[in-house]
Structures are given as structure tokens and as C-alpha cells.
């Protein structure tokens, strides 16, 4: 008989309900009438009497994380929290996050924060031009790095002794740092907090959802590329959001074509063999925020830590990105003209 994930002891519902719990290391099999080593009755129920695991289960941590109210209080000044997700690596989540941050920051009346939860591959500091910054600690907490007067950034990159040091951590340590980014960082009053995530639907995603659920998450933006190999994983990410109770604000198709910087002609590089992002959005019943073409100058702007919007405001990719931002603002119930004003109105 082929193995099936349905036979796994940890159901999807139990993982989502208590995603940060570490199952106790038992010294004997669970007896027939065991209430469960992670239940509130563990180690104290009548059926636990005489069980070799009784002391282990009785002392195991139970219930919600006591730091969640502290996180909620710390983020009380943040108006909107947006997760950037995909499920697939290499589709441009971090690039899109940096572009979205710059787009929001074009309005000088708005303050934007970016939290980099890609612990093993932190690229946000490079893209926002703050790679050489360090974390300053005061009585108020950790101070984020400021890429602009109204754009704050927090990343593990600021904590590395050397920029090329690898982060070789297991899940619990990643979860602990994400908690510190939310609980200890002095974010202050923000209009938007963007959370850049790694690929997948695992530790980092569960941690962010758990820690932010009480304070409220506006939703998630899905990023994909046109080909089916990317859409496969994005479908799983959308399924994760629905099971975790995270609203999907919309889907962005990145690298939808190549724009020649000389003639601005657009060519299809990654063929949408199954209809691409627009078809997927229709199938899944979510908003399609737009398509962003490949433009070598986006990569160049990220390498130099510059704003693509400031450097190439008239490019097709910039126009497409502005359309995405306005569509996102509409989905969030905000005025697109206020979120990202046109140059004439700035």
C-alpha cells in the first residue's frame, strides 16, 4: 500500500491551532485512553496514573504563547499588515516586496515597514540599500534600519558578523527570531508592515500567522510566474491561506514578459502553458492584481539598493507595478490615489 499523508498523527487542524507547540519526547507509547500529550489534561487525568510519561506530559508547555499579547501591544500602531507569499522560490517575492515598499513610500505622508522573515536567504537589505546597517538596541527595543525617512527594515542580515555567513538553524530558532522581530523591534506608527516570506508553507509561515493573528492581518499577496511549475506551488499556498484563515488579497504574475530597454517591445519568456496567473486567479476565485514584465533595470535597481520607481518612472514595468499597487489598495478598501499618488498630485 502506498504511503499517505492522511495517516500522519498531526492533523492539519491541530497544527494550525497550535503550530508552535513542540511535541513532548515520550519514553513509552501512549496508552489506549491517553488524553494526548499536548492536551490540557495531559499528565493529570485519571488515565495518566502509572503511565511512564506522566511527569513529562504534566510539565510540557500548554496553551497559547504568553508573548502574543505583548506582540499585539507592540504592533498597535501598525494600520495594515500584508504578507508576501508564493510557495515557489525564484518567482520574485523579495523583489516584489521591495518594489511594493518603495511604491507605498512614494507618498511621504505614509510610513512603511518591511520585515524579512526569509531567515536563511535575507535579500531585502541589499534590495533596499541598507545591507551594511546594524541593529541598535535601546530601552525601547530594537531599532530598525531606515532605507528612507519613511521606510523601515528589519532582517537577520543586520545581525551577521560577515555578510556571507550562512544561517544554519532549525525551526524553533527561526520561530524565536521572528517573535523577536515582532515583539522587540520598535516599529512605532506604520501605515503598512510588509512581511517578506521564504518559499513554502512551513515554520516561518505558521509562526507569522500565529503571532499576528490577534493583532490582525489584512491579507496576503501571492506572487507567481506564468509557467505551470510555479502555479502548482502557488495553488498550495492559497490552500494554506484558506486553511489558516488568511485572506488572499490577490495574485501578481511576475516576469510575465521581457521588456527590451531599447525599444520597450515585450516578448514572452516564460510561456503560460495553462493560462498563467490570470487563469489561476479566476479558478481560485481571487483578485488578479496584474502582470509585471521582466525588466533588467529592476534587477539593477535592486543590486544598487535604489528605487525603481524613482529611476525609471516611465518604463512599462513601472506602469504595470503602479497598476498592481492601485489594485491592491482597492482590495484593501483604500483610496488608490492616496496610497500611491500620481506625480502630478504629489
UniProtKB/TrEMBL annotation:
PANTHER family: CYTOSOLIC FE-S CLUSTER ASSEMBLY FACTOR NUBP1, NUCLEOTIDE-BINDING PROTEIN NBP35 YEAST -RELATED. Keywords: 4Fe-4S, ATP-binding, Cytoplasm, Iron, Iron-sulfur, Metal-binding, Nucleotide-binding. It comes from Neurospora tetraspora. HAMAP family: Mrp_NBP35, NUBP1. One of its GO terms (molecular function) is ATP binding. The keyword Glycoprotein does not apply. Residues 20-45 are annotated as: Disordered. Component of the cytosolic iron-sulfur (Fe/S) protein assembly (CIA) machinery. Required for maturation of extramitochondrial Fe-S proteins. The NBP35-CFD1 heterotetramer forms a Fe-S scaffold complex, mediating the de novo assembly of an Fe-S cluster and its transfer to target apoproteins. One of its GO terms (cellular component) is cytosol. [4Fe-4S] cluster 2 binds at residues 260, 263. Its main location: cytoplasm. Gene3D superfamilies: P-loop containing nucleotide triphosphate hydrolases. It is found in: Cytoplasm; Nucleus. [4Fe-4S] cluster 1 binds at residues 34, 48, 51, 57. The gene is NBP35. GO terms for biological process: iron-sulfur cluster assembly. ATP binds at residues 87-94. InterPro entries: Mrp-like_CS (IPR000808), Mrp/NBP35_ATP-bd (IPR019591), NUBP1/Nbp35 (IPR028601), P-loop_NTPase (IPR027417), YlxH/NBP35 (IPR033756). This is Cytosolic Fe-S cluster assembly factor NBP35. PROSITE patterns: MRP.
Amino acid at each position: 500500500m502506498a504511503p499517505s499523508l492522511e495517516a500522519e498523527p498531526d492533523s492539519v487542524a491541530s497544527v494550525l491551532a497550535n503550530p508552535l507547540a513542540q511535541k513532548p519526547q515520550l519514553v513509552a507509547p501512549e496508552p489506549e485512553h491517553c488524553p494526548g500529550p499536548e492536551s490540557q489534561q495531559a499528565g493529570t487525568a485519571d488515565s495518566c496514573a502509572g503511565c511512564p510519561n506522566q511527569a513529562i506530559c504534566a510539565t510540557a508547555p500548554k496553551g497559547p504563547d504568553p508573548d502574543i499579547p505583548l506582540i499585539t501591544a507592540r504592533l498597535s500602531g501598525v494600520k495594515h499588515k500584508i504578507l508576501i507569499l508564493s510557495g515557489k522560490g525564484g518567482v520574485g517575492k523579495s523583489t516584489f516586496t521591495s518594489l511594493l515598499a518603495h511604491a507605498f513610500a512614494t507618498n511621504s505622508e505614509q510610513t512603511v515597514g518591511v520585515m524579512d522573515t526569509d531567515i536563511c536567504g535575507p535579500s531585502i537589505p541589499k534590495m533596499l540599500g541598507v545591507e551594511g546597517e546594524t541593529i541598535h538596541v535601546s530601552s525601547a527595543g530594537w531599532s530598525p534600519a531606515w532605507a528612507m525617512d519613511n521606510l523601515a527594515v528589519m532582517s537577520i542580515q543586520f545581525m551577521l558578523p560577515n555578510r556571507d555567513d550562512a544561517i544554519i538553524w532549525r525551526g524553533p530558532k527561526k520561530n524565536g527570531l521572528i517573535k523577536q522581530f515582532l515583539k522587540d523591534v520598535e516599529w512605532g506608527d506604520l501605515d503598512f508592515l510588509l512581511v517578506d516570506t521564504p518559499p513554502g508553507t512551513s515554520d516561518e509561515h505558521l509562526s507569522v500567522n500565529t503571532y499576528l493573528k490577534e493583532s490582525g492581518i489584512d491579507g496576503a499577496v501571492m506572487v507567481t510566474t506564468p509557467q505551470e511549475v510555479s502555479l502548482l506551488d502557488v495553488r498550495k499556498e492559497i490552500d494554506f491561506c484558506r486553511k489558516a484563515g488568511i485572506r488572499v488579497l490577490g495574485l501578481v504574475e511576475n516576469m510575465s514578459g521581457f521588456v527590451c530597454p531599447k525599444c520597450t517591445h515585450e516578448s514572452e519568456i516564460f510561456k503560460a502553458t495553462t493560462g498563467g496567473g490570470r487563469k489561476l486567479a479566476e479558478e481560485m476565485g481571487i483578485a488578479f492584481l496584474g502582470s509585471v514584465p521582466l525588466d533588467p533595470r529592476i534587477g539593477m535597481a535592486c543590486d544598487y539598493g535604489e528605487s525603481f520607481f524613482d529611476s525609471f518612472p516611465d518604463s512599462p514595468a513601472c506602469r504595470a507595478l503602479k497598476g498592481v499597487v492601485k489594485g491592491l489598495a482597492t482590495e484593501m478598501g483604500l483610496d488608490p490615489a492616496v496610497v500611491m499618488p500620481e506625480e502630478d498630485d504629489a
